[in-house]
Each structure stands twice: as C-alpha cells, then as structure tokens.
Write a structure and sequence with these properties.
Helix content: 40-55%
Shape: globular
Distance between the termini: 58 Å
Structural class: alpha+beta
CATH topology of the largest domain: Serine Threonine Protein Phosphatase 5, Tetratricopeptide repeat
Largest sheet: 6 strands, mixed
Low-confidence stretches: 459-471
C-alpha cells in the first residue's frame, strides 16, 4: 500500500481539479462567492508533487491554502498526509480531523468537518489492509455524510444543495481510495449520486456583503492567544493554523489594511492574498448556467480563471514548476513567474496527467448535454490525441466534439471567446462547430519577444543562436501555427515591434472592422495598455480590444518582456 499512496493522493487532487467548476457553482456556505472548487484545488496542489519529502509538502500545504475550505482541508491533510500504511490510516485521519475542527474559530456541523468525522468512523475497525469491499463501505459512509449536510445548515437547506467543501472531500477520497485498488477508474458519476442537490434553488439569494476574504502567513515567535485575538478580533470565518513560528490565518474582514497592520506588529507578514467578497458574490449571482451546450478549452490559451468563470468556459489545466513548487498556470501570479525568470530560476511546464484530463471529460459530460472542446494545437501537446482516444471508448452518443484548433496562447483564447459568444447567441451546437472551424482558419497571432535566451533555456533554440541574436539586438516575431511556432520576421527594437503589429493588423482587417483584438502582456502591462492599445484603438475604433496576461505556459518559454497581438476578423 505504501508504494501506491503517492499516486492515490495525486488522484484525489486531480479529481478535485476536474470537478472544481461544479463545486464553485454550488458554493453558498459560508458565503455564496463561488470559489470553493478553486480554493480546494489550489490548496491541495502540493499533494501532486509526491517526489518531494513529506515535511516539505506539508509546509507547502500551509502556504498554498486559500479560503475556508482550502485552509480546513490543508489542516486535515497536514496530518493525513503522514499515512504510510493501512495500519495508521485511522490514527492519521483521527488526528487530522481533530486539528481541522480546532483550527476553525466557530466550527459548524454540515461542512467538510463532518466528512472527516465520517472517514474516521469508517476506519474505527483499524483495518490492516484495504480490499474493494472495505473501500466501498468507506465511500458509502462518506457519501451519506455529504447528503446529510443539506439538512444541517439552514443556508444549504434553503439553497437546496449539499456543502461544496464536503462534496469536494468526497470527490477527493473516492479518487484516493479507488486508486489503492484495481477499481481506480470505476468512479460513480457525481451528477447521479447527488443529482437532486447540485442546483441552487431559484428562491435562494445571497445578501450583498462588503469586505475581503483574506489569507496570509505571519512569521512570529510564540504568537499567544491574546496576540492572535488582536489580529483576528471579531472578524468572521476565522481559521488559524500554527506551524512552528509560522501562523497561517484566514478570515473575512471589512478592513484588510487594519488586519495587515495588526499582524505586522507581531511578526513578518508573508504570502498575503485577498479577494473582494462583494465582487465575487456579484459575479456568482450572474454566472451563466446552461446545461445544454458548453465550451471547453485549454489553459494554454491566454484566458484567466476569472475569464473562464465569467464566460462559463471550462479550462483544462497545464502546470508550471517554479522554485520547488508546481501550480496550475491559471493560479500562478505572472509577476512571480517573470521575476523568477529574470533572476535566472529554472522554470518547466507540463501537461495534466491523462487521468486528470479524463476526469475533466467525465465532469463536463456529466453536467452538459453537448460539449465542444477547442483543443490546443496537437503539435504543442498530446491533449487532442488523449481526448480522441477517450471519446472512442466513452462517448457512444457523440456528445463530446473535439476540434484541433492548431492554436495556443492568444489565438486560442480569441477563438474560444468568439465561439462561446456565438454559442450563447445562437444556442445551436452544429452551427457553432461550423463557426469555430471558420474562426480557426482566419484567426491570427503575432508574438514579439524581448530576448531569445528564454527560448534557448527551454531547448527551443540553440544557446549560441540566442546569444548571437541578443548581441545583435535581434527580436524575432513568432506566429503560432498548426505546424508549430513559426518565425515570421525579425525587428531591432520596441518601436519596430509596434510598427510590425500595426502592419499585420492593417493587412488583415478593414479600418471600420468590429474585429476582436487581444493584446497580451508578460511583465509589461503599462507598455501594452498605455502605449500600444491607444494606437490600435485609433486605427480600429470599432474593434473590441481586450488586454490580457499572456498564457503563462507561453510566457515560461518566451520570457519576460514578451507581448503579443491576436485577432479575429468580424465574422457572420
């Protein structure tokens, strides 16, 4: 069993990743802000890195934890991750559950805490081994605990849903335990198991709330209860996790500056994160919900997690490993990536596992009648082949349509946005697929690199070629094509880059076009937004111009200083 545990933890996280959008869609407790899935996934990503020492992974859990659900889960797994055999499953689950309950300032029944208790109860017999029958008993006990949450909390009962965090833990543990047996892929459909508790009642409405959801770490020696009280005061949703001289604190507050100042009095504040609750609640209220037809694409396109939520698009993850941690690219701060690259840190990229991708396919087909997967170009990843192979075995009704776009970064993002809008307008999947094929054929993108050295570091250019190019101040212009990234020109300075972008746009677009134009930035937002966007807006006043961060998968290969323009002509 010990040898199988690392992959079992990874399987649990990958399942949470695939079902995170569903968890977000039913997240009403403690606040209906639609981020439980995101928070759980981000918080548990350290468990994917099973090549690291356990203590380092546990430390990363503390630093990664976000939101109520993520912090509670991180506290539980800081103990449960120490399991090394069937014999100590019970002890690790029991101590993890105790510490999770203790971490919450005002714990409530009807949350993931009950799932932890149910897991402990199901292991009280202290099994010396796990067979399929014993695992089934555990899973059915966890399933019941999730169903029970709907009746325990008034807000959940009013909304008519189970607790999102509790469901997230069920999804994790089903993946975890099934991976320990030969039934690793025989997961029961989530949308069938909880089908009457996965849609928020139309009568439910969250009250508007001001303030912030804050996560931060304080480094301090012996932070007493009195000092903690000075920080947390009468704030809501307080969770405190001690770890040596580090204290991870989560809370909801109306005054984040006051909290930051209070914490700074007792130690160094690190890893500060905050979300605007009012904005999140408003976006959650207006989230698009259509169970008939859906668009899915890859995060290798220049779309953020917020873009995907706003537009009702599913994003399949790609990962970036940086400074000893691996994160999905949509959950890594661009500033962190580019600062590290400028300092010479090694950066690598990777695709999600085949298992995670398959879980995404199951998830979208469990929630939508028809899905169009706008896949990143097959020349860049194996995603297209993986989807086609899964479809052959698991989609006899042809509900998943897989289109190889031949695109990446901004070009893929522009295609996805345009196709999603067309689908929302027409509600016709057949016509949408035709529209997508046309968009793929006419959408263009041009990427302007500042230096060649990062392409060389990633093995995409010889280091000698990069050195000579930089010495001669040669800045290549790249266009991602179905056959791969193609060099379409070379310029000598930033002024020439802008001139080339305008020439390319002018050659392809009429002046009065209502084209969709996306400008992408790396660590040069001011240049792109303040200098380049006005020039393009003046030339094409009727076009819609979007300023977006460059896909970090692309940014990790092309480096800081890169910017790009992608555009789709106006189409009928």
């Amino acid at each position: 069993m010990a040898e199988a545990l690392p992959e079992a933890f990874a399987a649990g996280v990958e399942r949470v990743a695939a079902w995170a959008d569903l968890l977000d869609s039913i997240n009403v407790y403690p606040v209906a802000d639609g981020d439980t899935g995101r928070n759980l996934f981000v918080s548990l990503t350290p468990l994917l890195d099973y090549h690291q020492e356990k203590e380092k992974v546990i430390h990363q859990l503390l630093l990664s934890a976000r939101g109520n659900s993520g912090n509670i889960a991180a506290r539980f797994f800081s103990l449960f991750y120490r399991v090394d055999s069937a014999e100590n499953l019970y002890d690790c689950a029991l101590e993890g559950s105790r510490r999770a309950w203790k971490a919450v300032n005002d714990p409530k029944p009807g949350t993931m805490l009950n799932v932890f208790d149910a897991l402990t109860e199901s292991l009280e017999s202290r099994p010396t081994s796990l067979d399929q029958e014993s695992i089934n008993r555990i899973i059915y006990r966890l399933e019941k605990s999730v169903h029970d949450t709907c009746a325990m909390l008034p807000k959940l009962k009013k909304a008519g849903v189970v607790d999102a965090g509790a469901l997230g833990m069920y999804i994790f543990f089903e993946g975890f335990f099934f991976s320990l047996t030969d039934a690793a892929r025989n997961h029961r459909p989530i949308t069938e198991l909880f089908k009457n508790r996965l849609h928020i009642s139309q009568e439910f409405q969250e009250d508007a709330q001001a303030g912030y959801c804050v996560d931060f770490v304080v480094k301090a020696h012996n932070l007493s209860r009195e000092k903690l009280a000075n920080i947390t005061g009468s704030e809501e949703s307080v969770i405190v996790i001690p770890d040596g001289d580090l204290y991870k604190i989560h809370l909801h507050t109306d005054n984040r500056e006051k909290i930051k100042a209070a914490a700074a009095k007792f130690g160094s504040v690190i890893n500060w994160e905050d979300d605007d609750l009012s904005q999140q609640i408003n976006e959650f209220r207006h989230a698009r919900s259509d169970s008939q037809m859906h668009i899915m694409t890859d995060a290798a396109g220049s779309l953020t997690h917020a873009d995907a939520q706003k537009n009702g698009i599913t994003l399949l993850h790609s990962y970036i490993t940086l400074n000893g941690k691996c994160l999905p690219e949509t959950h890594l701060h661009p500033a962190e990536l580019y600062a590290a690259m400028r300092n010479g840190s090694k950066v690598t990229t990777s695709q999600a596992s085949v298992f995670e991708r398959q879980q995404f396919y199951e998830s979208v087909l469990g929630r939508f009648q028809k899905v169009l997967y706008l896949c990143v170009g097959s020349v860049y990843t194996g995603n297209y082949t993986a989807a086609r192979e899964w479809k052959k075995q698991n989609d006899p009704q042809d509900r998943l349509i897989v289109l190889d776009t031949g695109a990446a970064s901004g070009r893929l993002a522009v295609i996805a946005l345009a196709v999603n809008r067309y689908l929302a307008r027409t509600k016709n999947m057949e016509k949408t697929v035709e529209f997508a094929a046309k968009a793929v054929s006419v959408c263009e993108e041009y990427v302007f690199l500042d230096k060649l050295e990062y392409l060389a570091a990633g093995g995409r250019l010889s280091k000698t070629g990069a050195f000579v190019g930089d010495m001669l101040k040669m800045k290549p212009v790249i266009s991602p094509q179905p056959e791969g990234a193609k060099k379409v020109g070379v310029v000598h300075n930033q002024e020439d880059q802008i001139k080339t972008a305008l020439q390319r746009l002018t050659a392809s677009l009429p002046e009065k076009t209502r084209a969709l134009i996306m400008l992408e930035y790396s660590d040069n937002y001011d240049l792109v937004h303040d200098a380049i966007k006005p020039l393009i807006a003046e030339r094409f006043p009727q076009a819609q111009i979007i300023v977006q961060p460059l896909s970090l998968t692309s940014g990790a290969h092309m480096g800081p200083g890169t910017w790009a323009v992608a555009f789709l002509p106006e189409m009928e």
